[in-house]
Design goal:
Elements (H helix, E strand, L loop, with lengths): L1 H7 L2 E4 L3 H10 L2 E4 L8 H11 L4 E2 L8 H12 L14 H14 L42
Parallel strand pairs: 1-2, 2-3
Length: 148
């Protein structure tokens, strides 16, 4: 049971998968991330983004990470101040999505209801008040097609 190990850990060393990081975040534990090589860049991007927000320590390059770099990241994570490293990460995206979907389905207007305020998004933009993508688009910028 991985959750028991996460709960008992001071620092979790993990790849940058969404589920793994959300388990660590929900437990409020520190993490060192060594994202897998590929085929996609998803884990590398998530590790870099989370590290930029101070939520995790991330290996600089999965292809050249050394044991001493890994030990340094673990020590750095352990010596960080005592507060939870996950401050600012919102874990209520599922609840917000269900609420928004129910509101849209019950709306007499029957048109898409998309959040337009940064605080309505489960994952805030790089700076407070900035959306990561424009409303109505996927992260890559492609339009979101919602049937009328």
């Amino acid at each position: 049971d991985a959750r028991k190990y996460v709960a008992a850990s001071d620092v979790v060393v993990t790849m940058g998968g969404y589920n793994s990081l959300m388990e660590v975040a929900s437990a409020g534990k520190r993490a060192v991330v060594v994202p897998r090589r590929g085929p996609s860049q998803e884990q590398k991007m998530r590790a870099a983004l989370f590290a930029s927000r101070g939520w995790v320590r991330a290996a600089s390059d999965v292809d050249s990470v050394t044991g001493s770099e890994l030990v340094g990241l673990i020590r750095s994570s352990l010596s960080a101040p005592g507060r939870s490293p996950w401050q600012g990460l919102r874990l209520d995206g599922g609840d917000k999505a269900v609420s928004a979907l129910v509101s849209c389905l019950l709306s007499p207007r029957r048109r898409p209801c998309l959040p337009t305020r940064p605080e309505d998004w489960a994952f805030p933009g790089p700076r407070a008040g900035v959306l990561p993508t424009p409303p109505g688009t996927y992260p890559e910028g492609a339009p979101l097609h919602v049937p009328s």
